[in-house]
Amino acid sequence: MENPQRYFLHLGYNGTNYSGWQRQKNAISIQQTFEEALEKKFARPINCWGCGRTDAGVHASQFFAHVNLETALEEQTIFHLNQILPHDIALFDIIQVPDRANAQLHATSRTYNYYLHTQKHPLLNNLSTFYKGDKLNLNTIAKAVNLLTKHHDFLSFCKTPRVYKHTLCEVSEAQLFLEEKTGRLRLQLTANRFVRGMIRLLVARLLELGRGEISYKEFESYLVEQQPTKHKNPANPDGLYLSKITYPFLDIPPTNDLNLLGGTWLMVQ
Q1: Under 8 Å CB-to-CB from 251, ≥6 apart: which residues?
Q2: In 3D, which of 259, 261, 246, 200 has the Cα closest to residue 58?
Q3: 184-191 and 240-246 beta bridge pairing
Q4: pLDDT of residue 161
């Protein structure tokens, strides 16, 4: 192969043992682990660029990174890389894309799911966030969730607003789901972009609202007044999943994030 070809790597990972996607100096990241696997396979350093960052402990059931490869791919490449990768990172597909395709810049939407449960269960450890004994007003939470598609500036839910030119996000879908049998909850958000800490800060405030610790009017004021957040206690990372990324040239259906206990998810109105 004379000229490098650009490929999207479609992967997923359990983020429990990692400091997030992006390579860091003093911690193990998904990016570092994946690039080391690529180097072992192709016998040379290969850089990959991810579709975005995920925090330490956050999972991804769908994630894309792009790479440039000068080596012709074999039929067994995916199998070989999965043999090299640790058990908590999986490569699903390798997809040739246009030479200028960028996994981060060309994404048109991202979907996240946040899972939580209020009854301790060993199979959900590190895969869903456990909030002991919460008696939540789900209808009030669902009412607040509906506000998220009506507002566009999420400054109040941004951990580091100074690193962004703006904190505008177009949330196209915001839904709360309940699994009636087990009482598990799932918040699903789709937007053109998310700012750092946005979902975990949202979940923390929604839980406060559901417990009656803040009012619906106070929650709404965060979206209306757009003041820098004073809250330093985001929801735990283990319930958060990057679930789907869409591109103008690529739209792969997502896998189920968390279906260990089965059941049926119903939307809370």
Answers
A1: none
A2: 200
A3: unpaired
A4: 85
Task: Tell me which residues are annotated as active site.
Answer: 55
The answer to whether 161 and 89 have CB atoms below 8 angstroms apart is no
Q: Which two tokens stand for residue 180?
A: 């009636």
Cα–Cα distance between 187 and 145 in angstroms, integer? 9
CA 137/CA 71 separation, integer angstroms: 56
Domains located in the chain, CATH noted: 5-96 (3.30.70.580), 109-254+262-267 (3.30.70.660)
Single-letter code of the amino acid located at 92: F
Contact 185, 177 (CB under 8 A): yes
Residue with tokens 């994946």: 34
Predicted structure pTM score: 0.94
> What are the CA-CA distances from residue 25 to residues 20, 76, 84, 244, 265 (Å)?
12, 32, 22, 28, 41
Name which of 44, 38, 34 is nearest 86 in CA terms. Answer: 34
**Token digits of residue 190:** 């789709």
The answer to whether 147 touches 223, Cβ cutoff 8 Å, is yes
pLDDT digits (tens, 9 = 90+) for 48-65: 999 998 999 999 999 999
CA 73 to chain centre: 29
